[in-house]
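Hi everyone,

Forwarding the result from last night's run.
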Amino acid sequence: MEKKIPHVLLIYRRMIPSIRLCGHCQMEALAAEGKVEYRAVPGLRLTRGDLEWAEIALLGRLDSWYELQVSKLLKRAGKTLVYVIDDDLLNVPEEVSSASYYNQESIRRNIREILEMSDAVMSPSPLLLRKYAKGKRAIRIEEPAIGAKPWVPHDPEKPVKIGFAGSIDRMGDLEKILGEALPAVKRKYGNKVAFEFFGAKPSFAGELEAGYIPYTESYDEYRETLEKAQWDIGLAPMPETPFHACKHYNKFVEYAAAGIAGIYSNVPPYDRLGAFPGCAMLCGNTAGEWTEALSSLVEDASLREGMRKKAAECAAGVLGVEQCGEQLLREIENLRGNEGGVFGNLLPMKGMNIIKRTITSVKGHGPLGFVKMILSRRY
């Protein structure tokens, strides 16, 4: 008897990198090969037909009242619910910009209820799976390297380009972890090194005579810019905290896809990069260790180029979209839910959602932040 192809529905709010990398691009690749039937639908554009069609529903970081109601409808109809989470949304530190939103009790309650009714939890983080998949199916997903490019050797006679890519939220990490090491490296090597910051710009950037690239909300533009930067060495400082430990090593994936040799803090999640031997360098979060790690790559072109090559090969190989998709298929192929079901008109819930989302967004981001969200079409 021929095996039935599963119907997988992803429900999300915005196609942010977390959603795109934590299921969507893998499912698109599998659907293109005819291994799943797949729909990705923003929550407010869902129809009764979408809900009836689905057997497996991927709930992409859902947290609103409306998304909770939709999850309840799907659960009652016998669908298999998989909650997708790549950050510890129930424990966001106050210094993170999204904390004022996620730390609202109504949002936390919605997340807890959706998690509770889910049949499985999907995450790239083993820590999040241990924390939230208790008694449920734990699905470990690998976030892929999109658009990985083949290794191209860099001219060893040119200055070694050292860069950091990350949002404004990472400013504190740069200041605290690299504030002494980078100026020391600049003093040591002078014009033999060139620094550049993409997104966050620390206070010591001027001392380094560093270039600066403004951050972009477009993930495609972000990847293209990172590739065009032609960095030799990428920096990934990470503080050792319970919240950061639950993150994924996505900076490694991004640097590897751009053919960059990365130096990473030897703390979770980067301490798992031993799974990719020769592709990354780990160091402790002291000025001395960061200075030593940078010096070793600046001085040894063979070591640096070898790491760049291995990282690029890793990105195109085990971290390729198709390979990560196959891994996910093995995880979900035994999941099955009911097709069909009876669903009422979703419009009243969608109308109520506008009111509730406006209230929580104003509370979480403030009136001015809410207006900015509207203008940037992120609401």
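Residues 347-375 form the longest helix (29 residues).

Cheers,
N.
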